[in-house]
Design brief:
mainly alpha, single chain
Length: 441
């Protein structure tokens, strides 16, 4: 490259930097005048760009994903939407790091079809009613497809494995702190289920999904026995502290499937399950679930479908009955974002969400939207080395819903990257380098 060409490129790079600084300054100024949120967003973009330029995309994505478990643990004392924005930013950083290329994947076309089917009703819903609540839900709906896209088409598995490793370690550390907070009774004893659950400074479903996701990550991480025992124990104890039965159901199914399919590890898994159960009873962590079950028997919760699952039967029935009686176009593309809370409020007197990804997406995004979600999930499961990692997340999605809980969902999906992929990529790159060297000799 000649000196003149190099000088021209340097000048162009400088011009781009000045142009970007000018645009950022205008955005910040406009935000200060018209809307402070615009100023904050513009400043965050500039700061993020500088950070990425300084540290590199892998380091930034790693820090962002690793911070999410701590935002979950202290979620109730932080701004309400902080977890949502942080999860969306972390998903975006993960996507950039993964450098997905669906053309290299045989399942790429299927995933693209699912992606279009899922977002088409979202776009239509925003055109019909694009208020603040609808925009917030649309933002939440972007997180899962972004992570799934990155995982399905991932071309930089070595970089993503770094994110997975540190995200896993951070999540285990955060859950350990959460367990100690609950054990010490800090933050008070929650009356969410009236069963003595100890949530500390976290919300029940956020921390329960995080714990279940970490258990799934530990199940496929090929950890030494003592490490796996500790991680599974902490995840189970935290889940029991929350009293969230859908998360506990996912852990039970995970344990049974892992013990059944773990070739060569069955004895180890059975021993781990037994040790965790004994420790849970010894520490009294099972008291919350026992109290919930006793309360269920006293109130006759499971005597009718309507009251089953803390009223999920009634919630699902109301949503599906309204959907079934909707006009044909709503059957196809849904009733619109956030309509399910209006449906539930009119039917049962409470503005509740769908308590199931399947029910919520079917009602709000119709047959097209639910078809897209199933195609994306199916592609993601087929492209994963060990689908057991998704068992707790899928159980939670069916019985409680995951799309609303973006922070633990991002962590759980990041943990699906197999540890072996880094070693495989490193060996492959080493072989390519050796071949290149040999070719020059």
């Amino acid at each position: 490259m000649t000196r003149s060409v190099r000088a021209v490129r340097i000048r162009l790079a400088g011009a781009e930097a000045y142009a970007a600084a000018g645009v950022a300054a205008v955005a910040v100024g406009a935000g200060i005048v018209y809307n402070p949120l615009i100023a904050v967003a513009a400043a965050a973009v500039v700061f993020g760009a500088l950070t990425v330029d300084r540290l590199g995309r892998v380091a930034v994505a790693t820090v962002m994903v690793a911070s999410l478990p701590w935002l979950v643990v202290f979620g109730n004392v932080l701004p309400p939407l902080l977890k949502t924005f942080a999860a969306a930013a972390a998903a975006g950083a993960f996507f950039v790091t993964a450098r997905p290329d669906l053309s290299r994947s045989g399942a790429g076309l299927v995933f693209k079809v699912g992606l279009v089917m899922f977002f088409a009703p979202v776009g239509l819903a925003l055109l019909r009613n694009g208020g603040g609540a609808q925009l917030t839900e649309a933002a939440k709906y972007i997180v899962f497809p972004t992570m799934a896209f990155a995982l399905v088409g991932m071309t930089r598995s070595d970089d993503c494995t770094v994110i997975r490793t540190w995200g896993f370690r951070s999540a285990v550390a955060a859950l350990t702190v959460q367990f100690m907070i609950g054990l010490a009774g800090l933050g008070g004893v929650s009356a969410f289920y009236h069963s003595g659950e100890r949530l500390g400074f976290a919300s029940a479903h956020d921390i329960a999904l995080l714990a279940a996701a970490v258990a799934g990550g530990a199940a496929v991480a090929r950890l030494p026995f003592r490490h796996m025992l500790v991680v599974l124990g902490i995840a189970t104890l935290v889940t029991l502290q929350t009293g969230v039965r859908s998360a506990l159901a996912g852990l039970v199914v995970l344990a049974l499937l892992a013990a059944w399919f773990a070739r060569g590890y069955r004895v180890r898994w059975l021993a781990a399950i037994g040790a965790v159960v004994i420790f849970a009873f010894a520490t009294g962590a099972t008291d919350v679930i026992a109290n919930r079950l006793a309360h269920s028997r006293q109130t006759g919760e499971f005597t009718t479908f309507a009251t089953a699952g803390s009223g999920r039967g009634e919630i699902w029935t109301a949503a599906l009955r309204y959907y079934a009686g909707s006009p044909a176009q709503d059957i196809v593309v849904g009733t619109g974002l956030r309509t399910i809370t209006r449906i539930e409020n009119a039917a049962i007197g409470e503005a509740l969400v769908g308590h199931s990804d399947f029910v919520e997406v079917l009602v709000e995004l119709g047959l097209v939207g639910i078809g897209g979600l199933l195609l994306m999930w199916g592609t993601l499961i087929r492209r994963t080395t060990d689908p057991l990692v998704f068992v707790p997340i899928i159980a939670f999605a069916l019985l409680n819903g995951t799309l609303e809980y973006t922070a633990p969902l991002v962590v759980g999906l990041a943990l699906s990257i197999p540890r072996e992929s880094y070693e495989h990529e490193t060996a492959r790159e080493r072989d390519l380098a050796a071949a290149a060297v040999a070719g020059t000799l």
